[in-house]
Amino acid sequence: MKISSVKGFHDVLPGETARWTWIERQAREVGTRYGFTEIRIPIVERTELFSRSIGDTTDIVEKEMYSFADRDGSSLTLRPEGTASIVRAYVEHAMQQKEPVSKLFYLGPMFRRERPQKGRLRQFSQIGVEVIGRDDAAIDAEVLLLLHDLLTGLEIRSPQIELNSLGDATCRPPYRDALLAFGQAHRAALCENCSRRLERNPLRLLDCKNPECRAATTDAPVMLDHLCGPCRAHFDAVCTVLRREGVGYRLNPRMVRGLDYYVRTAFEVVAEGLGAQNAVGGGGRYDGLVKALGGPDIPGVGFALGVERLILSMADHAGAAPLLPEVFIAPLGAAAESEAMHLAHRWRRDGVRVEMTSGGKSLKSQMRLADKMSVQYVLILGEDELAGQALTVRDMAAKRDFARAIELSSSGNALRDALAQLAHHSVEQRA
Ligand code: AMP
After folding, report:
1. Which of 73, 101, 147, 236 has the smallest count of CB within 10 Å of its CB?
2. Which residues contact ligand 1 via a Cβ below 6 A?
3. Poorest-confidence range of 56-70, 85-99, 100-114, 152-166?
């Protein structure tokens, strides 16, 4: 019986991996330009890390975590996101003593037990950045500029940055009370989920997807109308930079992000091609998180993008095509086969992408194979070629043969030069 993969856990097949590595390379390049360095964090953490940081009343912690008891009874969890782990590592290694500001990026798999659908998996991959150690609006704006550059480089279709402020410890509590009062006054019209968690997490009222719930809360108070002076100034400063740099954004006062730790700047990116799951990424400022996880009172800001969703919303042509083999060596006979193996080894060491097969296959079947691999040049090595110490080249696209055009002693560079020459000049044709 065949064993299939687990629901929500997908293979990334050979035809797709070129795009993945291209995306990762873009992220590394853009991140490096903005002064970020990579950090690699473990996939498994103590469960407590996420309940304390993401928040007990969030969907992730309430119902989506892959948690399990280790053999010693401790509760472990497959990380559902990166920020908590980064901050844990930051505190554990006292990074603030080594550098005043840490600019970190990461990429890797995350795990959430959500209901799988298009763009929603149980194992998915994120690319994220975090800046720990700055609380000014300029760095929020810079993080958004980085995000914008990355989306542009990846050729995401119609990306739109949605921006909000979630206030801070001064203005959010009174706002929260106002929203709670609103929710209680309209309780009968709320969906079951919102009603149930209203007292514990009233902010979630605003991003509920239930249409009746949405209708009931169209007039709910929003944070942007209740910001204190410093939060207002911070938010305006972020917007000013974005406008000056020509980065489009849209205010979305109902966007609250799913996680408890955000303060002030919060944002999401929506794009085409995603259906109901229209966010490719999101992030924001998390000033209290380092302290909440046992570190000093140091602020942070960052975002995460989902790689699978990026791929869904990328332009069709974006992402490097897989690198095809440059040449296919087709030996005829045992002596030729061992010589072909030797040539392939030499040229591969010289950096050429070489394919060949073995087992005494006919020229016709080797040609078919080379054609399937979309190789442009087949190098034929038969008795004549062995005697003349030079390979015959078949240009597959032009359907032309060049008899004994490449010397067996050629280096990889000489091979490439000779092929380039053949592309320009016609040499005598093999009969
Ligand atoms: P979040 O940490 O929830 O803000 O998620 C950030 C980004 O990660 C989202 O915008 C998605 O692109 C991606 N993401 C989150 N959850 C999933 C999932 N279950 N499947 C695929 N991508 C996801």
Report:
1. 73
2. 81, 112, 114, 119-121, 124, 126, 258, 279-282, 304-306, 308-309
3. 56-70
